[in-house]
Amino acid sequence: MERKHEKYDRLIARCKALKPVPCAVAHPCDESSLRGAVGAAQMGILKPILVGPKARIAAVAAQFGLDISAFEVVDAPHSEGSAEIAVRLAREGKAEMLMKGSLHSDELMAAVVKRETGLRTSRRISHCFIMDVPAIDRVVIITDAAVNIFPTLEDKVHIVQNAIDLARALGMERPRVAILSAMETVNPKVPSTIEAAALCKMAERGQITGGILDGPLALDNAIDLGAAKIKKIDSPVAGLADILVVPDLEAGNMLAKSLSFMADADAAGIVLGARVPIVLTSRADSVETRLASCAVAALVAKARRENLKQTVA
């Protein structure tokens, strides 16, 4: 087994060679959220813009000995206002990523998805867990386990494309995408197998780009070469998947938490499909997981910046 956190350490190390990314931190009014922003800044991953009640932020910093003197602080009266101002900073190009502070995720995402003032794009917004599983020799991306409850086939096109773009930003040139179900054969009685087959055909026709898709695949033959060989599955994805696309949020949530609590995995997370990457931290996240989430978002921001330059050129 690899040393725990080794894959996350490599992601964080890649960010140290980059210029810190301006990040609007919405309502960092408790120790964990403020410490996470300060820690990521000290690592050179991001340049925080702290958005929230100035007096509360200053009090938290003083209470826990956190130096925020080098950071810009934008005053906001309450958590809802913090979310709206943080989103506005991203719309104006002053921030290239968002980070959740001590407000509820729903408050931040409500500001993100507002049609007139939010950060919507033509893509469906989706979430990816970037899992560091000690027993697996690579980072594994699970999507969507946090935003889309029962995604349609159309939603899944966006979910898959968001995950592929993320994987490429993390350095995977041609990520392998497994569309998961309970079995590896198409069964008309199991809708997820039909959708998996459709997604693979859409990739063949260029409607999904940048990755290698296969499905339906059961979890065992998606991540374990031995299981794939026993079942005689001839596939460039089976046993080697970088991305696991789950049928719905319940399946994804159970898979991610099973890996966390029964396989000693860490789960960094990021929201994609908006104008900027969004880090939804949790008070339960370890320091390493918080830093990894910030590193992932910074690498996505870098990739978007480079794509924009190419488009303009």
Structural description of this entry:
α1 (6-16) packs across α11 (287-312) and α4 (79-91) packs across α5 (105-113). β7, α7 (191-204) and β8 form a beta-alpha-beta unit. The protein has a domain at 122-273: Isopropylmalate Dehydrogenase (3-Layer(aba) Sandwich), CATH 3.40.718.10. The strands form two sheets. A six-stranded mixed beta sheet has the order 8-7-9-6-5-10, with helices on both faces. It has a five-stranded parallel beta sheet with strand order 3-2-1-4-11, with helices on both faces. The chain has 313 residues and is of the alpha/beta class. It is built from eleven helices and eleven strands.
- Strand arrangement, major sheet: 8-7-9-6-5-10
Cα-to-Cα separation, first versus last residue: 45 Å
Q: Which fold does the CATH topology of the domain at 122-273 refer to?
A: Isopropylmalate Dehydrogenase
The overall strand count is 11
Give the name of the CATH architecture of the domain at 122-273: 3-Layer(aba) Sandwich
Q: Low-confidence segments, ≥5 residues, pLDDT <50?
A: none
What is the global morphology? globular
Structural class: alpha/beta
Helix amount: 40-55%
Average pLDDT over all residues: 93
